Amino acid sequence: MLQLRDLVISFDHGELVAVDGLSFDVARGETFVVIGESGSGKSLTGMSIVGLAPQAAAVTGSITFEGQQMVGRSDAHMRRLRGRDIGIVYQDPLGALNPMHRVGAQIAESLRVHRLAGGSAAMARAIELLERVRIPDPTRVARSYPHQISGGMRQRAVFAMALACRPRLLIADEPTTALDVTIKAQVLDLMRDLRTEFDLTTLLITHDMGVVAEIADRIMVMYAGRVAEIGPADLLMDRPAHPYTSVLLQTAMISEAAPRSELPVVPGGTPALNDMPPGCRFHPRCPFASNICRKVVPPLRAAGAVEVACHHPLTETAP
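Structure for ABC transporter ATP-binding protein, as requested:
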């Protein structure tokens, strides 16, 4: 359904490269999860797919949705796609909702804009969608302003808005950020049910490995704008090939650590756009880095059942 080839997103006339040669496919019906630290280029990639990259960004390469090229399309063309064919769940539900309009009216607006329903029919559909995303008393919530409902309800309302026109692809950008553990679990259950009910293909962007374990079919790990590793979720999480993926998985197990034990960390931080290291961008933080890692960009290659961009994949060095 979705195919990216050699996607490059840069700023300052190409001097600052935020996404560097990204390629991946999303198959129809699957939940494809993109994971990595803040600053890895995940959200920028997701927003570029629907033509919402920052105005200062230069986007090159190829993005095709159901065979249709998206790079270089007019704003008018992308507005017709957004909401109707591709639904979007943004990081901040409160910021995604207009504080001046009632929740139901904002959901109904998408139906009116894309001429799928109007007037009372659009509002009735909005209330039905709120009920489908498991909001109690959906009529009351539809009449409420965003600040009058809880964070969990706002997140569900954003899902209802994204699904109003029954899109074929859903891009969910950090949909569980800032939610407590109980609400997060409810949102994940909701995503699983919506996938079946709406026959959704989902591109999920997150930094939470716990979310990945619950919902992913395939995973792509990003680091500093490049693919580190990509493969089936169960295989990648059971035996990661990239050192960065391995540490991400270890940090996800912090809640199970013994009292007073040393917690796993990734030393250092994600490099700034104006200070990208040569060779493998992870090498300054990698315990297995060698001279080749500091000089040569590792190609994405097969390592068992996954693909990994690493000169010394763990699956080849582990016993």
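The domain at 26-57+72-85+168-308 is CATH 3.40.50.300 (Rossmann fold).
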